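Ligand-bound model needed. zinc ion.
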Amino acid sequence: MAEGRPLKETAVEVPLLGPRSVLVRVSAAGVCHTDIHLISGAYDLGEGRKLTATGGGTLLPLTPGHEIAGSVEDLGSEAGATGIKKGDQAVVYPWIGCSRCRKCLAGRENVCEGRPAFLGFMRDGGYAEYVYVPDERYLVKSDGIAPAQSATLACSGLTAFSAIRKCDLHTDDLLLVVGAGGLGTTAIQIAKKTTGTRIVVADIDDAKLELATKLGADHTFNTAKVDVKDFVSGVRALNGGRGADAVVDFVGKPATVSFGLRLLGHEGKLVLVGLMGGGFQLPLPMLPLLGARILGSFTGSLAELGELVQLAKRGAVAPVVTASYRLEEANEVLSRLEHGEIQGRAVLSP
Ligand SMILES: [Zn+2]
Ligand SMILES: [Zn+2]
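Prediction:
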């Protein structure tokens, strides 16, 4: 991967194994929207400003892919203490931190303040036959879950899980999920199964909304077809005239954040996950008057991935995987994803 250019197949030597490292033979690598930002080279900050992928810490060129599931091919001389052995099926935690900063020491490597080594961003990732994982502790055993599904837990699933957890939901709360793609559909299942909360879903695609209903959404709105005013009053009516208790925005563009904020009730939380980008005017007094909060959420911790894999093993969460594609089809799959033509999640299999 190089900035602004389509992916190109290259031969990379299998690295020598460090003492605690593991070599994973990739069975499935999820295709994430973030890969599009990395390849296009930028995030849109609004008003013509951009955050470049390299400015965000990405080192190019490299192999993208941070949703990785596979089997353990080989172990370093001192690896095995966690019980991992050759042939084990595992999902790889890709959000590897510096292991020295405050956040890493507290177990939140995904928000590392030092120099992180995220797989597929700063180190070669999963669009490959093999992936080098520097420490065995980043492997979470996923036996019993199909690799195409377990792979997606590492980013899409984990991001949804951590975002829902930040909402601190109760059974009688009302949650609005904005965007019913791969993350949204996983979030709906997690929220329903772990909190029992009432769920409203907004998307611009009827097929995605139908899927959302099958997975546990109580009400859906096609925001391309209803007026924003009617949508806002419709959601309020579902919560006895109050706003939503939490909004999780998996799209993250001015229009969605704007209606998300308009919908927040007292002490409501808006958890912003999507990176579509842009900027907008914030009516400041609304936050203090409502005691509302806006939070950003970026993936999740290694411990959270462990919990999520357990949920998936119990069948409480089944990531929606559309189809598996060959590794050579990566550029085509990325382009279809960019144009919103992929329902659920697509994975590549070498
Ligand atoms: Zn991702
Ligand atoms: Zn760190």
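The pocket of zinc ion (ligand 1) is lined by residues 32, 34, 66, 155 (CB under 6 Å).
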